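Q: Please design a sequence for this.
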Protein backbone atom coordinates (compact mmCIF):
# COMPACT_ATOMS: atom_id res chain seq x y z
CA UNK A 1 0.00 0.00 0.00
CA UNK A 2 2.80 2.45 0.89
CA UNK A 3 4.48 2.16 -2.51
CA UNK A 4 1.18 2.40 -4.43
CA UNK A 5 0.07 5.50 -2.56
CA UNK A 6 2.71 7.50 -0.73
CA UNK A 7 5.64 6.76 -3.04
CA UNK A 8 3.67 6.70 -6.29
CA UNK A 9 2.08 10.09 -5.51
CA UNK A 10 5.15 11.60 -3.77
CA UNK A 11 4.79 15.38 -3.91
CA UNK A 12 1.25 15.19 -5.36
CA UNK A 13 -1.09 15.38 -2.36
CA UNK A 14 -4.09 16.41 -4.50
CA UNK A 15 -3.44 13.55 -6.93
CA UNK A 16 -3.27 11.02 -4.08
CA UNK A 17 -6.49 12.24 -2.52
CA UNK A 18 -8.26 12.28 -5.88
CA UNK A 19 -7.10 8.72 -6.61
CA UNK A 20 -8.27 7.50 -3.18
CA UNK A 21 -11.68 9.11 -3.73
CA UNK A 22 -11.99 7.42 -7.15
CA UNK A 23 -11.11 4.08 -5.51
CA UNK A 24 -13.91 4.64 -2.98
CA UNK A 25 -11.55 4.64 0.00
CA UNK A 26 -13.47 6.18 2.93
CA UNK A 27 -12.14 8.97 5.12
CA UNK A 28 -12.08 8.28 8.84
CA UNK A 29 -14.36 10.16 11.24
CA UNK A 30 -13.09 13.04 13.38
CA UNK A 31 -11.94 11.11 16.47
CA UNK A 32 -9.62 8.61 14.78
CA UNK A 33 -8.49 11.33 12.37
CA UNK A 34 -7.30 13.42 15.34
CA UNK A 35 -5.37 10.48 16.79
CA UNK A 36 -3.45 10.03 13.52
CA UNK A 37 -2.91 13.70 12.68
CA UNK A 38 -2.38 15.26 16.10
CA UNK A 39 -1.98 19.00 15.51
CA UNK A 40 -1.24 18.61 11.79
CA UNK A 41 -3.81 19.18 9.05
CA UNK A 42 -4.72 16.56 6.48
CA UNK A 43 -6.92 13.61 5.66
CA UNK A 44 -6.99 10.09 7.09
CA UNK A 45 -8.34 7.15 5.11
CA UNK A 46 -9.50 3.72 6.25
CA UNK A 47 -7.57 1.33 3.98
CA UNK A 48 -8.31 -1.75 6.08
CA UNK A 49 -8.42 -5.14 4.45
CA UNK A 50 -10.47 -8.17 5.41
CA UNK A 51 -8.33 -9.23 8.38
CA UNK A 52 -6.05 -6.24 8.92
CA UNK A 53 -6.75 -2.73 10.13
CA UNK A 54 -4.83 -0.21 8.02
CA UNK A 55 -4.87 3.57 7.70
CA UNK A 56 -3.37 6.04 5.26
CA UNK A 57 -2.58 9.60 6.33
CA UNK A 58 -2.19 12.32 3.71
CA UNK A 59 -0.99 15.42 5.56
CA UNK A 60 -1.29 18.91 4.09
CA UNK A 61 2.49 19.37 4.56
CA UNK A 62 3.12 16.75 1.83
CA UNK A 63 3.98 13.87 4.14
CA UNK A 64 2.20 10.55 3.75
CA UNK A 65 2.03 7.62 6.17
CA UNK A 66 0.70 4.08 6.00
CA UNK A 67 -0.22 2.46 9.34
CA UNK A 68 -0.65 -1.26 10.04
CA UNK A 69 -2.23 -2.82 13.10
CA UNK A 70 0.49 -5.48 13.19
CA UNK A 71 3.73 -6.16 11.32
CA UNK A 72 7.05 -7.95 11.44
CA UNK A 73 9.76 -5.25 11.80
CA UNK A 74 12.50 -7.04 9.84
CA UNK A 75 10.16 -8.27 7.11
CA UNK A 76 8.75 -4.77 6.76
CA UNK A 77 12.24 -3.30 6.29
CA UNK A 78 13.20 -6.00 3.77
CA UNK A 79 9.99 -5.46 1.79
CA UNK A 80 10.45 -1.69 1.78
CA UNK A 81 14.08 -1.89 0.65
CA UNK A 82 13.18 -4.40 -2.05
CA UNK A 83 10.31 -2.25 -3.33
CA UNK A 84 12.45 0.91 -3.38
CA UNK A 85 15.19 -0.96 -5.22
CA UNK A 86 12.67 -2.37 -7.73
CA UNK A 87 11.27 1.11 -8.33
CA UNK A 88 14.82 2.32 -9.09
CA UNK A 89 14.56 4.87 -6.31
CA UNK A 90 17.98 5.79 -4.96
CA UNK A 91 17.94 5.25 -1.20
CA UNK A 92 20.36 4.87 1.68
CA UNK A 93 19.76 3.59 5.18
CA UNK A 94 20.44 6.23 7.83
CA UNK A 95 20.27 4.00 10.88
CA UNK A 96 18.01 2.76 13.64
CA UNK A 97 17.20 4.51 16.90
CA UNK A 98 14.52 5.15 19.49
CA UNK A 99 12.22 8.06 18.77
CA UNK A 100 13.36 11.22 20.58
CA UNK A 101 9.83 12.06 21.78
CA UNK A 102 8.66 8.53 22.59
CA UNK A 103 11.26 5.88 23.55
CA UNK A 104 8.70 3.06 23.06
CA UNK A 105 8.94 3.73 19.31
CA UNK A 106 11.76 2.21 17.27
CA UNK A 107 12.70 3.95 14.02
CA UNK A 108 14.68 2.98 10.96
CA UNK A 109 15.37 5.95 8.68
CA UNK A 110 16.20 6.13 4.99
CA UNK A 111 16.96 8.96 2.60
CA UNK A 112 15.53 8.46 -0.86
CA UNK A 113 15.47 10.26 -4.17
CA UNK A 114 12.05 9.91 -5.77
CA UNK A 115 11.79 11.70 -9.06
CA UNK A 116 14.01 14.74 -8.60
CA UNK A 117 13.25 15.33 -4.91
CA UNK A 118 14.87 14.17 -1.71
CA UNK A 119 12.64 12.39 0.82
CA UNK A 120 12.97 10.94 4.28
CA UNK A 121 11.42 7.49 4.66
CA UNK A 122 10.71 6.43 8.24
CA UNK A 123 9.84 2.93 9.41
CA UNK A 124 8.37 3.28 12.90
CA UNK A 125 7.30 0.34 15.05
CA UNK A 126 5.97 -0.06 18.56
CA UNK A 127 4.78 -2.90 20.74
CA UNK A 128 1.16 -2.36 21.81
CA UNK A 129 -1.28 -4.84 23.31
CA UNK A 130 1.08 -7.70 22.49
CA UNK A 131 1.29 -6.79 18.79
CA UNK A 132 3.95 -4.96 16.85
CA UNK A 133 2.31 -1.98 15.17
CA UNK A 134 4.02 -0.19 12.29
CA UNK A 135 3.98 2.99 10.25
CA UNK A 136 5.81 3.86 7.05
CA UNK A 137 6.17 7.59 6.46
CA UNK A 138 7.38 9.55 3.45
CA UNK A 139 8.34 13.13 4.30
CA UNK A 140 9.80 15.77 1.99
CA UNK A 141 13.33 16.97 2.84
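A: Design:
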Amino acid sequence: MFMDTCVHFAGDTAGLRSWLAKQGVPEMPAEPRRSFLGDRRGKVYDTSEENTRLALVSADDGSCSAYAEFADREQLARNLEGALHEANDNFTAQGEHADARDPTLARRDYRATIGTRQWLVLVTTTQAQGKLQAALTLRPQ
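Q: Thanks. Anything notable?
A: The beta strands are 42-46, 54-59, 64-68, 90-98, 105-114, 117-128, 131-140. The first helix runs from residue 3 to 7.
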